[in-house]
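Give me the fold.
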Amino acid sequence: MDALKKNILAGNISPVYFFYGPESFLKEELAGMIRTAIFPSESDAASNTHILHGADLTIGELVSRTSEYPMFTPKQLIVVRQFEKIKKPTTKALQNQLEEKFSRYIANPAEFTVLILDADPIDKKDIEKAPFSTLKKYRHEFPAIKAPDLFAVNRAKLSGWEFEADALKAFTAYIQPSAREICYEIEKIILYISARSGEKRITATDVYDCVGISRTYNVFELEKALAARSLRLCSGISLMIMDQEGQKEGLGNIVRFLTTFYIRLWKLSLPAVKQLPQAEIAKILGMYGKQEYFVKNYITYTGSFSLQDTEKAIAALKDTDAALKGLHPYPDEKYLLLQLMQKLLG
């Protein structure tokens, strides 16, 4: 994606873009960059940007729209949302005819049109079928963020800021692992601290202040309580985290954090892993940049959990996640939390 951004910023605009995947924020961001690059003013952009929806048009209608000349500007921008839902013709013969027409257009697109085809996730088998197969040259996938901490570090760097190690840990523990949420919260933090002089470093205090995290009841304290095997303290801290103002997901955030916590402990239970240098262990645990600092904490925590404890905890977290997604009935989230803590430490 970095190469794609560089090309757009350099003015190297492709006649066609096919974006697909669940990360809608990143797709929207790139579409906005393309829009800015091809139009000299906002008024030109407004009159020559056309937003279409896949469910409302056929491939034939789309090709016709791309072939219409723009008004008063050298180029027009056509964005098709949910391209994967584009209407199919009534007969196979007509479908083949329109797909051939689309294929010819993609092979020789209009020089006055920039076409952005935006699709939700598409199955691997379907991506190799028409009309998607025709777009192989212009394909860009936007999968779900797999390393939110690394994404957050890189995003902050774009604005000239750097996370301190404990700040990054707090941030990624409480923020939804989506590009939209991460970018929004980083923007909010930077706006809050931008007037501060000195090094451009985001501290844990900044995260606590902006994200609404208690300095007393947070995931750092929860980790310590788990390692101490204190059911009462773990339950109390978790309940306070859930009740904190600004926590939108409550138990969902706790389950995500604890799943990462126990999976890291499970990986560290392998003797060969413990013997590796700290930098290598950090990579295996999915800890990036300054998060490497916390590897020693996890190594210490392994003394409090057997392999059986860790595997039992991961199974309990999986059951709790399934309940939160509606697959199992439960009275309320606090009941579900207390039940989880009993399974983790009982």
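The domain at 2-141 is CATH 3.40.50.300 (Rossmann fold).
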